[in-house]
Predict the 3D structure of the following.
Amino acid sequence: MTFANILARAFPEGSYEADMVKALGPGNVARVRSLRRAMKSLVDDNTLIAIGDGGPADPKRYWANPMMIAMTGNNDDFERVSAMLEAEPGGTKAMNKAARAMFKPDE
């Protein structure tokens, strides 16, 4: 999901936040900024994987980290998300990077 997709689900059409985003822009609404910071934190701690450059032509797409799903013991969900990520351009590279980061020794 892109941030725009997540934003549309978190703040549906007609909600105060959605109306304020239209009027002021997404950078000027506190709850939208908080959501953006939370997403960045989830990517930084490898709970989510971000794929894409983040520009208009290649927006970041957010995925659950398959390794986090594997830790829950649900092999079916792990396989499903892994297959979806592998089909995504840049997905295998992002998955490998996230897996290496999870097992990197603390410095």
In short: DSSP finds six helices and two strands in the chain. The first helix runs from residue 3 to 10. Helices lie at 3-10, 16-24, 30-44, 66-71, 75-87, 91-102.
